[in-house]
Design goal:
This protein is of the alpha+beta class. Helix content is about 50%, strand content about 15%. Bound molecules: adenosine monophosphate.
Length: about 140
């Protein structure tokens, strides 16, 4: 299974981004309203300046308390963002997420972000694929 198939199965719906000048309080609101775990930081919605996840907010809250909610995203986000290609395999993306300990990865076409997938998207897609394989094997064995 390839990343582009996962994007297709997710259906339409653009990536939720925030501007670097937004505050952590703004991001917490977006994460809560949209029921997501991370936002890509971007000036134009396509070029990736950074990523900020719920873990970053929790870490800052733990360290400094609620005053951190007034901080700008630009000061807290992860700048060195790992992306993947639509032609990468789901297994490679899962390995990267596991090895590097993050759960979100932007899908890039050159410098442009075309989608964001989470570890939940990859696992759901792989499970669906395994179910299909199981059904096919069961069919062969049982002679359906
Ligand atoms: P997550 O597990 O995605 O909530 O993120 C855990 C940590 O990794 C946070 O500090 C994020 O800012 C960072 N992070 C999330 N996704 C990526 C990514 N694709 N590349 C680099 N860092 C990331």
């Amino acid at each position: 299974m390839l990343v582009k198939q996962i994007i297709q199965s997710k259906g339409k719906g653009g990536v939720i981004t925030v501007q670097p000048g937004a505050t952590l309080a703004d991001v917490a609101r977006v994460l809560s309203e949209k029921r997501i775990g991370a936002v890509v930081v971007s000036d134009d919605g396509r070029r990736v300046a950074g990523i900020l996840s719920e873990r970053d907010i929790v870490r800052e809250l733990g360290r400094r308390g609620e005053i951190c909610l007034q901080d700008k995203v630009d000061d807290v986000m992860t700048r060195n963002v790992f992306g993947c290609s639509p032609d990468d395999s789901a297994d490679l993306v899962l390995q990267t997420m596991t090895a590097k300990r993050f759960r979100h990865i932007p899908v890039m076409e050159g410098e442009q972000m075309i989608a964001l997938i989470s570890i939940g998207d990859v696992v759901a897609a792989r499970l669906a694929e395994l179910q299909l394989e199981k059904d096919a094997l069961t069919g062969m064995i049982m002679g359906y």
